[in-house]
Amino acid sequence: MNALSDLQATLDPSRKSWVESANDSTHDFSIQNLPFGVFSDKTNHAHRVGVAIGDEIVDLAVLQAAGLLNVSSKTDVFARDTLNDFISLGREAWRSVRIQLSSLLARDNATLRDDAALRSKALVRQSDAQLHLPVQIPGYTDFYSSKEHATNVGSMFRDPKNALLPNWSEMPIGYNGRASSVVVSGTPVQRPNGQLKLPDQERPVFGACRKLDIELETGFVIGGGNALGEPIACAAAEAHIFGMVLLNDWSARDIQQWEYVPLGPFNAKTFATTISPWIVTLDALEPFRVAQPAQEPQPLAYLRHDGKHAFDISLEVTLRPQTAKQATTITRTNFKHMYWTMAQQLAHHTVSGCNTRVGDLMGSGTISGPTADSCGSLLESTWNGKNPLELKEGGTRTFIEDGDELMLAGWCQGDGYRVGFGTCVGEILPARK
Ligand code: CA
Q: Which residue, 74, 115, 127, 134, has most beta carbons within 10 Å?
């Protein structure tokens, strides 16, 4: 077998694992998925690299030490508190580890399956583990690439007839976000304070955000950067992407509305961005590749790529008030609706010569679908608070209240298996007094 057919075999829908929980057709972490993360547990507080399989985590540092995982590096890249060293090895190394793990975890492979002593060291139950921020993130950029989202926001705040500004259809619009406040799922988020401009007052007041919102997004993690002055071509861009996460770009709409002219969002976005702990590789997403929406006008040459560059990823958001048992689903949508692709975003980001680095995080922009129940933000689904959402156990929401828990989920449904992202959760704490 050559490397390509080995890689194909990792995507075989009929492949099953001896980790039985992975074989449930609606479990996020099938043997076809194998997402990477960083974890610790009660008995071993050291942060190390793991891969999710069913309800378990495979400790890659243990496998490497046992000689079951060959990696093209002289140094240990898995007994680390981030994935950056492993990611730096490049796509061939990521693929090689994926192929080796898929084989080791396959039902008919006895090597680890029948080695009880090693298995007890190498497998950690997810319920016993704590997940950490998977990468050290040198830079975070957020795009604005959903036509439906940009149209909704443009209609609300400018002019429904000219909702999209002329530049929007020519390039993936983005802004440089704040890497320091990216947190892993489960980290509580404090409601921000800031300047609020009330409509009936001439000057702003200082206080707690009253229009706290989510933005349902995905993010991609740079696996191979580019040197300063050397752009990444659109056709080559996907080779620079290690994988994807779910991303919640928490947004303070009232702070944003007052501050965003002329240089875009600042404090409205910098207080927190939550990502899911598992990075799903582009190799795992390959079977879910679909055509992106038609682009009119045709983009400039540097933004063109042949073939399919969108991915069919189902997404949903739920909201659970602190006092409620049940969460209410507030949106269902799909990543495939995005107008600009990740490859186009990366090509545009670097066309000026801007360099990117291993671990850089690029947000997709809010992912809204074509219908009212597929909006990726409360700003849109409640139309800036005019149409409150009904909650399952009573009550309504326009924007997020203290104690609310917001959860993003995402998955690709294959034939008998799922490639899922897990969840991306954050609970809102009251503002600092
Ligand atoms: Ca955003």
A: 134
Q: What is the pLDDT along the chain (433 residues), one digit of tens a residue?
A: 467 789 999 999 999 999 999 999 999 999 999 999 999 999 999 999 999 999 999 999 999 999 999 998 777 899 999 999 999 999 999 999 999 999 999 999 999 999 999 999 999 999 999 999 999 999 999 999 999 999 999 999 888 999 999 999 999 999 999 999 999 999 999 999 999 999 999 999 999 999 999 999 999 999 999 999 999 999 999 999 999 999 999 999 999 999 999 999 999 999 999 999 999 999 999 999 999 999 999 999 999 999 999 999 999 999 999 999 999 999 999 999 999 999 999 999 999 999 999 999 999 999 999 998 999 999 999 999 999 999 999 999 999 999 999 999 999 999 999 999 999 999 999 999 9
Please name which of 284, 276, 243, 277 lies closest in space to residue 50, comparing C-alpha atoms.
277
106 and 189, same domain (yes or no)? no
| 218 Cα to the center of ligand 1, angstroms | 10
The CATH number of residue 389's host domain is: 3.90.850.10
Ligand 1 centroid to 376 CA: how many Å? 10
The one-letter amino acid code at 238 reads E
Say if residue 182 is in the same domain as residue 72. Answer: no
Chain CA centroid to CA 65, Å: 30
396 and 272: one domain? yes
| CA 132 to ligand 1 centroid distance, Å | 22
Q: What is the pTM of this model?
A: 0.97
Q: How far does the centroid of ligand 1 lie from the alpha carbon of residue 272, in Å?
A: 11
192 and 271 assigned to the same domain: yes
Cα 426 to ligand 1 centroid, rounded to whole Å = 16
Q: How far is the CA of 350 from the centre of ligand 1 (A)?
A: 19
Q: State the DSSP H helix or E strand holding residue 284, giving kind and residue range, or none if neither.
A: helix 282-285
Looking at the fold, whether 74 and 150 belong to one and the same domain comes out as no
Catalytic residues: 149
Q: Are residues 186 and 64 in the same domain?
A: no
Quote the ligand 1 centre to 307 CA distance (angstroms): 27
- Domain final position from 84, 110, 132: 132
Backbone angles phi, psi at 368, to 5 degrees: -110, 145
Q: Which of 132, 163, 195 is the last residue of a domain?
A: 132
Any idea how long the chain is? 433
Domain span holding position 375 = 140-429
At residue 31, what are phi and psi to the nearest 5 degrees? -70, -20
HSE-up of 99 (CA within 13 Å, CB side)?
17
Q: Are residues 123 and 191 in the same domain?
A: no
Domain count for the chain: 2
